[in-house]
Design brief:
Elements (H helix, E strand, L loop, with lengths): L3 E6 L3 H13 L3 E7 L3 H11 L3 E3 L2 H7 L4 E4 L6 H10 L3 E5 L6 H14 L3 E4 L6 H11 L6 E9 L11 H4 L3 H16 L5 E9 L12 E8 L4 E7 L7 E8 L2 E6 L5 E6 L15 E6 L2 H4 L2 H14 L7 H20 L3 E2 L11 H4 L2
Parallel strand pairs: 1-2, 1-4, 2-3, 4-5, 5-6, 7-10
Antiparallel strand pairs: 7-11, 8-9, 8-15, 9-10, 11-12, 13-14
Length: 360
Amino acid sequence: MKRAKVAILGAGFIADIHLESYTRYVPEAEVVAVYTRDAEKAKAFAEKHHIPHHYSSLDDLFSSAEFDVVDICLPNFLHKDATLKAAAAGKHIIIEKPLAVTLEEADEMIAACEKAGVKLMYAEELCFAPKYERARKLVEEGGVGEVYMLKQSEKHSGPHSDWFYDVNLSGGGVLMDMGCHGIAWFRWMLKNAKAVNVSASMKTVLHKGRTKGEDVSIVTVEFENGVIGLVENSWAKQGGMDDVSEIYGIDGVAYADLFRGNSVLAYSRNGYGYAMEKTDTTVGWSFCVFEEAFNQGYPQELKHFIDCVLHDKEPLVTGKDGRAVLEIIYAAYASAGQGRKIDLPFHQRVNKPIDLWLKP
């Protein structure tokens, strides 16, 4: 069987999820190298996952290792540089959300990949999550009639890594981290219908001493076909993670909950956590997810991209889709900052999207 060789950039939580997905579900791929800025962390990750090569320099990775695909699982502010170097080296790229920090970076990344003739896939796992996909197919089968509203929410008490809280590194708060999922899913459900305006409200309620970013956001997107999308996100919700979609049609309704029904209901006085590190997020009642990677669509999206590379197909979700999501995020920050509806297309040059809220 022909296999694509993969280099993973990053060694954090999401890189672990991707590595597990390749190992368990994508036999067409072989992870041959890992890069992270910390040499010891790169070595430890490689040893843990039996990866033959590890690097703490992107230049060394691209000049020394032989591979076909770059899987970018790095912090947001590193996306552009990694993408440009991968494109220049002729590597196909799958990149975690958000595509970039700014629209200017996104445009540069897309142009570089087009010039180099390499594939660029925007890794939106909700477009591949089994429950969400079954709900989409139910809609296509006429199960709810004409859709008039979509809702998606993702909520928990905060991200795994400290860099998410630094808006200079992340570009924003919970909207940049999780709101991008709901926005991308709206476009996926609506076959990339054009968004025409955005309204948003956001605030910081739990992490005031830790970040300038919002930890609660509500965004409404109106599309050209008349459908309204409402995405709710929170870093302030206790008791574990929620990820839910709702589809409203004139003849019916459909709900998809990624974790409840695929979890263990638990109560803990002391808490438990990822890699056995106890955290306050799991004190009390919570839902223990036993198949996070599969339920959220990570293996399915990676398998799809490897198939695209091996058989020269266009990915279903591309860098241009990631840019469209980022433009809506820009408009949402501007709406929250100005207290009014923002029409699309929208582009205002800023250092980071959240500046449109913090400095309207």
